[in-house]
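Whether sequence alone determines local backbone shape is best considered at the level of individual chains. When preparing material for the folding task, we compiled for one chain both its residues and its backbone structure tokens. No coordinates are needed to read the tokens, only the vocabulary itself. For completeness, the protein is quoted in full, as a sequence line and a line of structure tokens:
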Amino acid sequence: MQKWLLNADAVAFRMANRHSSFFFRIFLPLLVLFTGCQNGDPSTAPTENSPSSNGGRLKVVATVGMVADIVGEIGGERIELAQLMGPGVDPHLYKATRDDVQQIMTADLVFTNGLMLEGRLEDTFNRIAQKKPVFAMTRDLPQDLLLKPDGAGDHPDPHVWMDVAAWANCLDVITEGLSKSLPDHATEFQSRAVAYRKSLQALHEYGLSAIGSIPESSRVLVTSHDAFNYFGRAYNLEVLGVQGLSTESEAGLQRINELVDLLVERKVPAVFVESSVPQKNILALIDGAKSRGHEVKIGGELFSDAMGAAGTYEGTYLGMLDHNITMVARALGGTAPERGLSGRLALPKGQP
């Protein structure tokens, strides 16, 4: 059944690309013509060494929060950053708006996750890359670091950010892209990347310690979809998702029943919902286990394909993973501070 789900996922991605191609054949030429009329000679479009924004700041577009946050950390005040997909937005299902395309067209640089996470925008970025720099964060990751689930063919799991140590390997792509565009500030970008890498190292070590405190028999992480495989590999958890790699794949009754059997047989104490995925499948698991005499609680809401609210600690990459690590550890019987590694996590609702 899992193989069928992953094959369905791959089909969904191919369909998404055809939809995106139609969008570009019809809409993009009109937008290019429109922006060309606004800006005059198309040959004056920004290049990677001529920032388009005032004061020499680079105009940068990033797709998801996990990418945008780190671009902002390294770019600092040298960039003007726009993020396409905000809190609670599912990148697997995201369709570009006219404003999105306008932002992409007028940017100096574009940063994406890659690995088909932004499936419906893949054609968009391939075409834009012919005119301006587009960097996929995961571009230089070695193949042996990428997970390729059975039945997914050559399509790697795109959720690399769930492994903090693996995600740290992507910082060089950002530093390279920004440095090529603003070579006079390359040393500054490199220095900021070094400092941020130290924060990632501390977070990764916290993950190893906190998740490692969970009793071995309880190290089972059940979530809405297969976004946590890298998390499981990094921190020694068995990970099971109701849906496949993409939320476009549907969960079948057989898969639900298989997971209910597992919850009951192994006395799993908690399952987890995700901030960007509907809860219905997880609620079905809880109801199924209850009907067989086993009480399963919702261990909390994890951040999978999107971060927390803008302006909060959970709305940063560090806060997102601190939240996930802390919540999983505490819900499955491990030991972790209530407010996480940094003491900055929001308290559960109802607590002072």
Q: What stands out?
A: Residues 9-205 form a domain with the Rossmann fold fold (CATH 3.40.50.1980).
